[in-house]
Amino acid sequence: MICPSPFKFHFEVAQMSLRAANLIAAGANSLSGTPLSFRSPSMSRVSASADALTTVPLATKGASFIRKHLQTLAPYTPIEPFEILSARLGRHPKDIVKLDANENPYGPPPEVLEALGSMEFPNIYPDPESRRLRAALAEDTGIGAEHILVGCGADELIDLIMRCTLDPGDKILDCPPTFTMYAFDAAVNGASVIKVPRLPGFALDVPSIVDTVRQQNPKIVFLTSPNNPDGCLVSDDELKTILDLPVLVVLDEAYVEFAREPSRINWVTNYENLIVLRTFSKRAGLAGLRVGYGAFPLSLIEYLWRAKQPYNVSVAAEVAACAALTNPKYLEDVKNALVEERERMFVKLKEFSFLEPYPSHANFILCSVTGNKTARELKAALAKDGVMVRHYEKAELQNYIRISVGKPEQTDAVLAALAKLQC
Ligand SMILES: Cc1ncc(COP(=O)(O)O)c(C=O)c1O
């Protein structure tokens, strides 16, 4: 006869109590219509224990276990998922002109779907060192594979760099308006952010960056070239001046392929304090598969290898990125089409009296909204026509919209929707 083990018995009792508690909690939840996770910490909730169902203040539960600096963290506001957006707008995804997240509307080369369809070992964990992809990237970029580390998007690498370099209380410096993940990840890693705002027209305020680094001693300066959301470049001279400071410089080149200037990825062999980040999300149309990469000085990269999650790049992501690199002509053609479309859209946007577009070196155009509608109202009006753009109403970017560059027919749809708002 097989006896149930005492552990198994206790486990099952606990599970039964937990299920009961969940049912009660779900009932309470559906009555109030408030998801539990959105309740304020002062509310109480039903808790399960093996011997009783009791009500305990939430303050002694989940929130009390969270690290102090995370208790006040503002959540990152991501773009709405495509299917949810489609349901909300009551439009088929094909009828949505999605120009709000700088995605590549052409998608990846056809080789990518073929390779994903014939993936050999999805049941086996991926190569922790992404060797095939790093070898292909070495060919593509001209920098040795030993300098390259691949991540689950450039986003993962921003966080990994901070996890490896920042002690609680350390500072980073960024230059708003810019990509908000730098400030978000700094907050998650217990660091504070020194902001050196850009000059009118969005150029970097280099003298102010130099002074601030000298006086406040941040550990990392984040630079973005082209910058998101305006598309400005960092010049060689600006970069060299900042690299001469005693600070680690992370140069984010997520959009560099759309600029006429070359990448600085090879500079990491000359500067011990430079990291360059790039991604497959924009150039290769693989935002959904999450593959980014960084080039690092050898003295730094070994620590990132030690700290990264072993299987951070999935088999599918590596297969897709390798396949994308086998068709450089497709990547080049798509880039050229988007750059050409950017120039056409820029000229057309200038014709609207309520928009002031800024010249961009990336796959998006930032516009100041100057008419009687606010940027938020303009975004909402465009959404009614199925055209999605990003709007900004922050201190450093008050009343702006950012429109990603799409296919010519998508530009036409934006222009038609804007024309309706002209009068
Ligand atoms: C400047 C910048 N860096 C990095 C990223 C994130 O890239 P990835 O999709 O590889 O995480 C973005 C995404 O929009 C970006 O704008």
TrEMBL record:
Its EC number is 2.6.1.9. The keyword Mitochondrion does not apply. It catalyses: L-histidinol phosphate + 2-oxoglutarate = 3-(imidazol-4-yl)-2-oxopropyl phosphate + L-glutamate. It comes from the Eukaryota. One of its GO terms (biological process) is L-histidine biosynthetic process. Keywords: Amino-acid biosynthesis, Aminotransferase, Histidine biosynthesis, Pyridoxal phosphate, Transferase. GO terms for molecular function: histidinol-phosphate transaminase activity; pyridoxal phosphate binding. Pathway: Amino-acid biosynthesis; L-histidine biosynthesis; L-histidine from 5-phospho-alpha-D-ribose 1-diphosphate: step 7/9. Residues 94-418 form the Aminotransferase class I/classII large domain. It is an enzyme of class 2 (transferase). Its cofactor is pyridoxal 5'-phosphate. NCBIfam families: hisC. This is histidinol-phosphate transaminase. It comes from Physcomitrium patens (Spreading-leaved earth moss).
